[in-house]
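Obj.: predict assembly geometry.
Materials: sequence records (below).
Method: joint structure prediction, all chains together.
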Amino acid sequence: QSVLTQPPSVSGAPGQRVTISCTGSSSNIGAGYDVHWYQQLPGTAPKLLIFGNSNRPSGVPDRFSGSKSGTSASLAITGLQAEDEADYYCQSYDSSLSGSRVFGGGTKLTVL
Amino acid sequence: EAQLVESGGGLVQPGRSLRLSCTASAFTFGDYGVSWFRQAPGKGLEWVGFIRSKPYGGTTEYAPSVKGRFTISRDDSKSIAYLQMNSLKTEDTAVYYCTRDRYSSSWYSDYWGQGTLVTVSS
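Observations (raw structure tokens):
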């Protein structure tokens, strides 16, 4: 049972827009801690996609965007491409769990 | 570009120990915190623990699932971080990743190693 809740799967056709939600609580996202997103392509290590709720590292296309409101955050992907098919994880910090970084369970994005 | 390479994984019996290494390059290792994460087969990501940089005390934090069994250390002169794993259990079987960490109102990992597989089995 993950501390942050993500949908297990989402799908979309090439060119479409999809969003992935990440729901937390008052001890993590709702407490003001930033949310970060990682992309894990099949068989590879995770890669930082969004940090600080909405910032893209250098090299990440602007098709990827993040937002946060209240106890939730979202990752949006526009202009969906076949190479976007991957697992996506949100991550934050939880003040009720000493030192703990917490993750969502991951969302599998399928490009139809 | 920063690079991290894990090593030391393998097959180990329950109750035994194993030490993983994380060798960094292309950045000033001593300026950054380092985390270890793991991913059990077919499962999601789990944070294992973290070591701060020496300027911030070099202190460590651990997930409850490994606290008291796992120890993270670092040798900045060699740009290496270690994960000492004792009293291993079958549920510790996973790919272990080390990361370079940064802070933005919560810690995040901007570079990840390729991972090393640890299998705990008799």
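Conclusions so far: Chain B has a mean pLDDT of 96.
To do: check interface contacts against the pulldown list.
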